[in-house]
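Problem: given the chain below (316 residues), write out its structure.
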Amino acid sequence: MKLSQLRNLLAVAEAGTVRQASKNLYRSQSSVTKSIQQLEESLGVELLHRASRGVTPTAAGKALIARAKVIEAELRAARNDIETVQGAGSGEIRVSASPTVAMALLPRAILGFRRTRPNVSFQIQEGVYPDVLPEVRMGEIDFAICLVPEQPRDEDLDFELLLKDRLTPAVRSTHPLTKKGKLTLAELLDLKLEWVIYRRSHTGRDVFEQTFIAQGLEPPKSTIECTSFACALALVESGDHVTLVPSQLFADKLKMTSIVPLVLDSPMPPWNVAVISRARHELSPVCLAFLKQLRQSALKPQLAPKPGQEPRRKLR
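Solution.
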């Protein structure tokens, strides 16, 4: 069993066809096919179901792919460690972030980090809790940074609270409600507005509904659900819709001008923004350095804990 064979298997499983995997790997189809066939022969088992429309992993293939992902993650961590020891200031960090984190906290942290480590590369993807947890467990990503509605209990993972955020109702900047002054959440419900929910998983609806339930209110019935955060924002920007978004989205007022938060006369419940990584797994020095940068970036003005709020702590 060779590393090149495992990488070819991973590429084919991810692409769904040998042809596309070969393009992604910049190799010929015949060499990729031969590599996987040799791997199957050495193991004495079929790893892929072949069909005219593509390939899918067999049960044995799924088991090997899961292990191969861990091996690939460990090799990447080893490269990061060696590069750090050599003083190269380089390496690779893979991050999954929820949409609002990807628009506010994460870019600020990456820009601050690359001022002193310009040779470190990043791979960034969008993901939400709890969908991202399997990728963190398998080592496919180093960190997941997302809104966590409850205190997680998972022995395989470390959760660290970066900041306590609050959801806020938001509308387009020219919406009549922006001139109404302070409203309570109950008064906002009485206006019978069309609400937009961003929902990539059940957590999206949980966060939305619990915001109202926490104040003894029934969540609005008239809603549009979106799995695209960009679409949810576009609906609010171009119509009379209202949505709930984390207040960190408005930390940089110059960036967000088409949508504005509504000032409420009733407090909104807090939600945790946490960074999630594997437990019992020593992060590479470059990852530890970025984690430190994340903590610093989370303490920027408008995102720092208010007086009387709990300090940042481990969620374990």
